[in-house]
């Protein structure tokens, strides 16, 4: 009888241990799962990019399906934490209305606010070719903020502008590409060369 | 001065609005236009481009007077000065047109030798010739305002002790 009780107790404890191991194992797996989530959260907090595109080109369409802005660049780094993108060597082409396209270059750019704001930084240059009753436009500044949906742009940095043959300087600029109106502020000088007689 | 016609026009402004569609540039916040020796000041200015590509500038005094000043050719320190509520400057004809309560003064060596006031004065800076009309629109209408011209005597009155001798020239 004693041996049977001993054998029974022995089998019982083996079973107990196996169940215990299974329980601990599942705890361990749960722990692993949580940590994985934390890692992703950690990535988010550490602002790790989730995708990087080289030599990219985005085309933004108007409601009628016509291209309105082409944003291209050497490298785009997207960060999920605030859904923003950093662009190296951006090239923006704005095709608005009947004027020739306006090409904008800069060192870097940042797209945020749910892709409704594009901020260009570093040697920003805007060029628009001349056309019948449209004067050629060149503009240089250190920073430019573009709002593609509203088709307007502005800067609070000093601006040097050449429109046709006249040049103007100012401390800030707001331009509405749709209505083709531009406002320069801050004690500038407009230079109108004598017309070549 | 003749040399002014080959100089660029520089306009200092507080702020500048460009309407690319209407090809009008509006400068406000205190405006100072300089072109060689020509200097004009005003509160606001409109710059339009004529079809031939010349600039046409309209300066508004907005309460204050728009002023204009330019050196005249010829020996000595000859200047002409004027002000009015509105001044129009046409780059092609180099005409300065001054509208409503206009006055023009010719200055020699810092001394004013004559002054004309009228509703409308136009000054041709190439020929240095100015004409006065009595209505702000630029044509003389009967019953319009009267212009006045004050010509300073070129000879100063000798001191009272010597009897004043008047020679007729």
From TrEMBL, chain A:
InterPro entries for this protein: LipoPS_assembly_LptC-rel, LPS_export_LptC, LptC
Pfam families in the record: LptC
Segments passing through the bilayer: 12-30
Presence of keyword Transmembrane: yes
Gene3D superfamilies on file: Lipopolysaccharide (LPS) transport protein A like domain (2.60.450.10)
GO molecular function: glycolipid transfer activity; lipopolysaccharide transmembrane transporter activity
GO cellular component: outer membrane-bounded periplasmic space; plasma membrane
Keywords tagged on the record: Cell inner membrane, Cell membrane, Membrane, Transmembrane, Transmembrane helix
Name of the protein: LPS export ABC transporter periplasmic protein LptC
Native organism: Pseudoduganella guangdongensis
Gene encoding the protein: lptC
């Amino acid at each position: 009888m004693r041996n049977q009780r001993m054998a029974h107790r022995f089998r019982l404890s083996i079973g107990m241990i196996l169940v215990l191991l299974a329980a601990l194992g599942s705890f361990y797996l749960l722990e692993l799962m949580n940590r994985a989530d934390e890692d992703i959260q950690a990535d988010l907090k550490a602002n790790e990019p989730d995708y990087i595109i080289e030599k990219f080109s985005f085309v933004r369409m108007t409601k009628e399906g016509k291209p309105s802005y082409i944003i291209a660049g050497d490298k785009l780094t997207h960060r999920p934490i605030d859904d923003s993108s950093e662009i190296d060597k951006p090239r923006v082409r704005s095709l608005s209305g009947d004027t020739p396209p306006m090409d904008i270059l800069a060192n870097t750019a940042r797209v945020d606010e749910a892709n409704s704001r594009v901020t260009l930084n570093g040697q920003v240059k805007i060029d628009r070719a001349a056309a019948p009753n449209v004067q050629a436009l060149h503009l240089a500044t250190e920073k430019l903020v573009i709002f593609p949906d509203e088709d307007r742009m502005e800067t609070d940095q000093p601006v040097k502008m050449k429109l046709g043959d006249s040049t103007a300087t100012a401390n800030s600029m707001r331009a509405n590409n749709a209505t083709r109106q531009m406002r320069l502020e801050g004690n500038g000088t407009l230079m109108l060369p004598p017309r070549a007689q | 001065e003749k040399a002014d016609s080959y100089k660029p026009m520089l306009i200092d402004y507080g702020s500048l609005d460009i309407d690319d569609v209407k090809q009008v540039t509006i400068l406000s916040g205190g405006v100072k236009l300089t072109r060689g020796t020509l200097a004009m000041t005003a509160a606001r200015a409109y710059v339009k481009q004529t079809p031939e590509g010349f600039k046409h500038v309209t300066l508004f005094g907005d309460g204050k007077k728009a002023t204009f000043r330019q050196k005249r050719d010829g020996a000595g320190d000859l200047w002409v000065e004027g002000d009015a509520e509105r001044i129009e400057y046409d780059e092609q004809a180099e005409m300065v047109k001054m509208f409503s309560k206009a006055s023009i003064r010719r200055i020699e060596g810092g001394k004013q030798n004559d002054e004309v006031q009228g509703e409308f004065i136009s000054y041709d800076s190439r020929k240095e010739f100015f004409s006065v009309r009595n209505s702000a629109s630029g044509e003389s209408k009967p019953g319009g305002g009267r212009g006045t011209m004050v010509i300073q005597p070129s000879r100063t009155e000798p001191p009272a002790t010597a009897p004043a001798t008047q020679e007729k020239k």
